[in-house]
Amino acid sequence: MPAAAIHKLTGSQHVAPYLSDYDAACRAFTWESARAQLAGLPGGGLNMGYEALDRQVAAGRGACVAARFIDRQWRHSDLTYADLLESCSRFGNLLQSLGVARGECVATLLGRSPELFTVVLGTVRAGRVCSSLFFAFGPEPLKTRLQLGRARVLVTSDELYRRKVAPIRAALPDLQHVLLVREANAGELPAGTADLAQLLGASGAQCAPAPTRDAEVALLHFTSGTTGKPKGVTLTHAAVIAQHATAKLVLDLHPQETYWCTADPGWVTGIAYGVIGPLTRGARMIIDREEFEPQRWYRILAEERVNVWYTAPTAIRMLMKAGTALARARSYPELRLMLSVGEPLNAEAVLWGTEVFGIPFHDTWWQTESGAIMIANFYACDVLPGAMGRAIPGVEIRVVRRGAGGRLEVIESPEEVGEIALRPGWPSMFSAYLGDEQRYRAAFIDGWYLAGDLARRDRAGYFWFVGRADDVIKSAGHLISPFEIESCLMSHAAVAQVGVIGVPDPIAGQAVKAFVELKDGVAQSEELRRSLMAHARRLLGAAVAPREIAFSAALPRTRSGKIMRRLLRARELGLPEGDLSTLEAGT
Ligand code: 6R9
């Protein structure tokens, strides 16, 4: 039985919500009117960076704070909309002078910093394509992604360059410029790099936005599949229409409200709702440059008077673990909306929010491919603890099954589990899997985009998450490909076969576990296990490497030689083994 709905007393909220009647909002909504809420480029066309910055400055918000950065020593530095517009203009001129062409890729490997904003917004504003990479990736995942994106420019720090990029630089022939964000006492520039601050200083402060069209690619995000290389998901400038609309209707962001998104910029949430969406709403963003720490987080919520907070289940579970007393040591009178994304948000976490903050967490669901929030518990609507919420206005979402003859059928029964399917036509829908037309086409069947997630849809239209339809792992909100980890372990001299699965973890949701079959004649030992672990951490980065490695005499595989991760998982968790007709005997 799901927990009872939490009824929202809209009359008592101090800000009138943008969406107060869900059905009426759905009826009234059109994507044309959503686009009309943006400025559009003076000569026609649409540009994400222009909507986030120029439009705000033109509306008189130039002197308003766009982003407040808080560092480890609790020092604050504020950037206004006008500051950001200037630094982005400089960056646009810099790209021009470096000879980076329209549509070419500029990658970042940065934490949450002012430079990240300059590079992401400056790149898309200049009509180049920005790819923001996860700073905790090791050299291998970085190499794959920089190669796939054919990045011409990379912006990173001295330290990340030295540890992760210098060792793979020779394998990146397209990468012509590495620009470093330098500490004051960084010393000599490493060979083949340049100083970003110096170049920006020497670039002009005026730069017109590129005349981009709606369908032109602006962002490249990498996401994981179960097989093959990571998928390069491209989002066009039109994505800003949906990111703006959802920042308004779901995050309910009002101009100059204080907003805190805790997502890392290396993943889609950190860009869509950590940079673009909130700026198009004229918000005042809080940017914590540090990593998670419960006391620090409560201090930010309280002292910075956060109004709207977008975070993730792993962080919420860690806060719950740190204890209610810590949360209650401060008060949060300004906090009016808390949201979550990225992994299943259990009902207990929603209720804990109500207990501690007096308001529930509002779950939201979406994917890199959807480019914007697609399912949400809306601010003014009842929250069903454990449910992901309802489809946003303007998008038709159902659960489907494969019926007779393989055709997709929409499931009407609220009990039956099916795959989440979205009807194409919303503006932030991904425009390609970079260089993989076939994979892109395979994501659409019978006029639906299939998300790869299993869910139920109840009579009121709320979606209840059930699981992934594939083997992809979500650990601490990071989407991890078992294939990428398997490939890395396979490159160790002692390894014959590898199978990687996600196992339940009370905090991270899932943890990565690798099962390794050794080559003939290689003996299992604790030392070898440690060597495998070190190998994985060095190449993949600690955030992606397996947490556990187990030896297996013979991994279960099909007669065609494919490792059966499904069976590994069933055996590990003591679940029914299911159909074994393709299993190779003796494995
Ligand atoms: C934004 C983002 C997408 C996958 C998605 C699903 C999982 C996202 C969720 C959720 C349960 C939620 N996911 N939101 N699972 N409840 N509210 O996370 O994008 O990194 O592409 O991951 O994350 O499995 O398919 P991405």
Structure description:
The chain is an alpha/beta fold. The protein has 2 domains: 22-454, ANL, N-terminal domain (Rossmann fold, 3-Layer(aba) Sandwich), CATH 3.40.50.12780; 473-573, 2-Layer Sandwich (GMP Synthetase, Chain A, domain 3), CATH 3.30.300. Helix content is 31%, strand content 23%. The strands form 6 sheets. The chain has a 9-stranded mixed sheet. Strand 17 and strand 18 form a beta hairpin. The relative contact order is 0.11. Residues 223, 267-269, 341-345, 363-368, 388, 451-453, 465, 468, 474, 479 line the site of ligand 6R9.
Blueprint (SSEs and pairs):
Blueprint: H1 22-28, H2 31-36, H3 48-61, E1 65-70, E2 76-80, H4 81-98, E3 105-109, H5 114-125, E4 129-132, H6 139-149, E5 153-157, H7 158-165, E6 177-181, E7 194-195, H8 196-201, E8 217-223, E9 231-236, H9 239-249, E10 258-261, H10 268-280, E11 284-288, H11 294-303, E12 308-311, H12 313-322, H13 324-328, E13 337-340, H14 347-357, E14 361-365, E15 375-376, E16 390-391, E17 397-402, E18 408-410, E19 418-422, E20 432-433, H15 437-442, E21 444-445, E22 448-457, E23 463-468, E24 473-475, E25 478-480, H16 482-490, E26 495-505, E27 509-518, H17 526-540, E28 548-551, H18 565-573
Parallel strand pairs: 1-11, 3-4, 3-5, 5-6, 6-7, 10-11, 10-12, 12-13, 13-14, 27-28
Antiparallel strand pairs: 1-2, 8-9, 9-20, 14-15, 15-16, 17-18, 17-19, 19-22, 21-22, 22-23, 24-25, 26-27
Helix pairs in contact: 3-4, 3-5, 3-10, 4-5, 9-10
